[in-house]
Amino acid sequence: MDSSTSALTDADISRIIEMAWEDRTPFEAIELSYGLTEPQVIQLMRQQMKASSFRMWRARVSGRKTKHVAKRGFGVGRHVCPTQRNR
């Protein structure tokens, strides 16, 4: 690990991996929360995951618009189901 990832706790690493797997969590959110750039997240994922899981993840996020704020066609926010709204 490089110096930026060596200070991370196991809980931080677990949360970063979880965020990286989420479709709607952009890399920029990970950078804001943990200070890791997209290449650093990719390196962390490569180190922490089995090779087959890493390849599956990379295929999943490569080119995905929702993983990059600049490519998103919608505002950052949360979807609320109409049945969950306060009445």
The percent range for strand residues is under 5%
Which bin fits the share of residues in helices? 40-55%
How many separate helices? Answer: 5
Number of domains: 1
Instruction: List the secondary-structure elements in sequence, H or E.
Output: HHHHH
* Low-confidence runs: none
Outline: globular
Rounded to the nearest angstrom, the distance between the terminal CA atoms is 50 Å
Radius of gyration: 15 Å
Major β-sheet annotation: none
Class computed from helices, strands and strand pairing: mainly alpha
- Mean pLDDT over the full residue set: 81
> What's the total count of β strands?
0
Structure overview:
The protein is 53% helix and 0% strand. It has one domain. The protein is mainly alpha-helical and 87 residues long. The relative contact order is 0.14.
Map the helices and strands:
Blueprint: H1 3-6, H2 10-21, H3 27-34, H4 38-48, H5 51-61
How is this structure best summarized?
This protein has 87 residues and is mainly α.
Name a few traits of the molecule:
87 residues; 0% strand; mainly alpha; single chain; globular; 5 helices
